[in-house]
Structure formats: C-alpha cells, structure tokens
Amino acid sequence: MPVIETRGLRKSYGGLQALKGVTLTVERGQIYGLLGQNGAGKTTLIKILLGITKLTDGDARLLDAPAGTAAVRARVGYLPEDHQFPGYHSGYSLMDFYGQLYGVSRDDRRRKIPATLELVGIAGRMHSKIKTYSKGMKQRLGIAQALLHDPDVIFLDEPTDGVDPVGRKEIRALMAALKEKGHTIFLNSHLLGEVELICDRVAILQRGELVREGTTAELTAQKGVFEIGLAPGQTFPEAAAKALGYAVRPLNPAATLWEAGLGDGQSIDPLVRSLVEKGLSLRHLVEKKVTLEDVFMSVVEGAEPGTDRRDRKATAVGGGNR
Ligand SMILES: Nc1ncnc2c1ncn2[C@@H]1O[C@H](COP(=O)(O)OP(=O)(O)O)[C@@H](O)[C@H]1O
Ligand SMILES: [Mg+2]
C-alpha cells in the first residue's frame, strides 16, 4: 500500500492554477524529493496532503485515507516552510508544547525530548532560548518537533533552506538515519544537489505540472555520450568515426579529447575496435553522466525563479531537449 498517492490533483487559488493534475506515488520507506522552482506548487501539494488546504479536483490519499483525515495526521510529522517558533521558548519547552499537542504522554515527553534533540544534534543547547539559535539549529529543532511522536511519514518543506553547507550535510545524514529507522520522508526542495544526494525518487514540478518522475538513477541515466582521449601526439580519426555513424566533436581546441555520441541501439565498441585496429592507444574512455541539475535545467529552461508563472506554452511531459 503506497504511503502517499495523488491522482490528477488540481488546486486553483482563484484564477491561478497552482497544481494542474499531479499524479504521484510514494512507497513506504522511501525518501521522495519534490523538486521545483519557487512557485512551482510544492508547498501547496504538502498542504493538501496534510489537510491544511483543500484540493480543487482529483484525488489525494495519505496512509490509505483521504488527505486531511484527522486520525491520520497523528501519524504524520511536518516541518513547515519558513516556520517561526516563538523565541521565548527554549528548544525543550517548545518540544514539550508540541508533544502535548500531539498527545504524547508526560513520561514519554520526558524520555523522548532529550533523545530526539540528541538525534538532531542540539541537545546541548536544549535549555537555551530559541531566539539565541542559529538558522541551522532552528531547522534541526523543526525537524525534531516533526519527529517527537514517532510518525510514519515526515514532510519536510525546504529543510535545509538557509542552512550552511556543513549543517546541510548533517541534515542529510539525519534524513538517511530516519530512513534507516523505517520512516518515509517527503522532501520539498529547490536545491538540486540536495535532492540528488539523498532521495530514492524524485519528481520535478514545474508551474503545477510534473515534468519528470523517477529514481535519481533513471533521471540522470546517460544518453549514450562518451569522452575519448588517445595517447599524446595521436590524432583522433574523425572521418572514420563519422563513417561508423558516431556523432563526434573535439572537446578542446587542441583536439586531444573527443566526444562520441551513439545513435539508437549503437554501442561504443565498434569505435574502440576501430581505434585499436588503426594502431591508436586509448588512454581515456568515460561514459558521460547527466546530473540532476542538467535534467532540471533542460525542463525548466526559460523559467526564472520567483517570477510570476503565467502560462506560456504547455510543457511537454517527458519531453526535454537533450
Ligand atoms: N494561499 C494562497 N493564495 C493564493 N495563491 C497562492 C496561495 N498559496 C500559494 N499560492 C500560489 O500558488 C503557487 C504555488 O505556490 P507554492 O505551492 O507555495 O509553491 P512552492 O512551494 O513550489 O514555492 C504560487 O504561484 C503561489 O503564489
Ligand atoms: Mg514552498
């Protein structure tokens, strides 16, 4: 049974279509990353799943219940985007407050609050006021708050926003540890590297539409492009390679490094054999990989972060220009 399931999910705010028919499935134990520029609709999707916002059309299910079902919310943890915890609380007192809201017993709170703060790495400061915390510490506290009642699913909306690189790395490690413990994590982020490093599956949302979905490996699978280098002084046989059907071009002005693109169903082997037969020495052969950022840029080209997203052309699903 999937943990999260949406089908043809739509949300309009007046005339603005924030979600235009989003279908996705998240299985238990996954870290699922929803990627997209500001305004793409990521936060709206989480809010619908949690019942904070009502959907306009389509279906959204969480833990096998319609989105927003009260009983299910007790099994869910949520780190909202841009949260502001009252600065007069200490980390501990804030956790105690949320624990009461979640219905965690006094004994459990006494036991779990220090343990959870330990897990996120701020136990040493748990009795200091939140107003003295750094942004990274506040994010960790926010994650701790989302974990206190041991939820099945954790929604993290931009968990590393405003956190320095070291803090980001630690938060990623924390997410990996939570996954190990069997939690399902749904992560919203506009930070590509972030998502690539931690997520099992990724969806790219653009102006309310899912334009890509799959495992990171699937999305970044190389498209049959190789880098080739010969021994110093040797000349790459451009004409022969073209005659074999490869799309080749030099990668540097000295033409010591070449790129060979494969046609459909073509392998690199005939080219390698041909080089060897010509008495040339292969010194470098690397299959090029596409990064998630390449994929992202190819689908969001022309879209600028933070700009108003009035629709121009419809985006071809599964299209792209690579
Ligand atoms: N409560 C709201 N009322 C009107 N428009 C909204 C509201 N919440 C979000 N929007 C609009 O919906 C779109 C998607 O927003 P959001 O889900 O916050 O995107 P993201 O989280 O990907 O940055 C944006 O254009 C935003 O301005
Ligand atoms: Mg958002």
Provide structural commentary.
By secondary structure, the protein is an alpha/beta fold. The protein folds into two domains: 4-220, P-loop containing nucleotide triphosphate hydrolases (Rossmann fold); 225-287, Alpha-Beta Plaits (2-Layer Sandwich). The protein is 33% helix and 26% strand. The strands form three sheets. The chain has a six-stranded mixed β-sheet, sandwiched between helices. A hairpin with a 2-residue loop joins strand 1 and strand 2. The radius of gyration is 24 Å and the shape is elongated. Magnesium ion is lined by residues 42-43, 81, 157, 188. Magnesium ion binds next to helix 1.
Descriptive terms for the model:
322 residues, alpha/beta, Rossmann fold, 6-stranded mixed beta sheet, 14 strands, binds adenosine-5'-diphosphate, binds magnesium ion
Chart the SSEs and their pairings.
Layout: E1 4-13, E2 16-26, E3 31-35, H1 42-50, E4 57-62, E5 65-66, H2 70-73, E6 76-79, H3 91-102, H4 106-120, H5 135-147, E7 153-157, H6 165-180, E8 184-189, H7 192-198, E9 201-206, E10 209-215, H8 216-220, E11 225-230, H9 238-243, E12 247-250, E13 257-261, H10 269-277, E14 282-287, H11 292-300
Parallel strand pairs: 3-8, 3-9, 6-7, 7-8
Antiparallel strand pairs: 1-2, 1-4, 4-5, 9-10, 11-13, 11-14, 12-13
